[in-house]
Model the fold of this input.
Amino acid sequence: MLSNIRQVLVLVNTIIEILREHGIPATPQRIAIAEYVLSARTHPSADDAWTAVKKKHPTVSRATVYNTLNLLVSKRLLKTHLLQEGITVFDPHVDHHHHFIDESTGEIHDIEWDAIKVSGEDSLHGFEVHEYQVVMRGRKKK
Ligand SMILES: [Zn+2]
Done:
């Protein structure tokens, strides 16, 4: 129990430091939003983040959550992906990687960049490729 409290304190202090380093004033609501989304492994949507943060901060507005997420994106602490129709998800894993969507649960899994080989992107005639990723759909084996 005590070690859990310590881990939470370390995490909160780290989040405050990260926000300060990026020039973002660390209000309690922003800390809670950043703590949730920067430690998320689930690729949450803005509404997922709002639902989660409201548990600790019932008065947090949807606008505050959206604005904070966009601020974190503008500081390159988060990436957005449109992996499923109409739903933007947030990803604290900002290095290049691919995604696998489990069709039965909707869960989005990170796939390491080197696990998949894509070829031919530099020889596409008439296109200058800046970025790409592979989005796979299927079922996660049990
Ligand atoms: Zn990801």
Remarks:
- Residues 59 and 133 are 37 Å apart (CA to CA).
- The first helix runs from residue 2 to 21.
- The beta strands are 79-84, 87-91, 97-102, 108-112, 135-138.
- The chain has two domains: 2-81, 97-138.
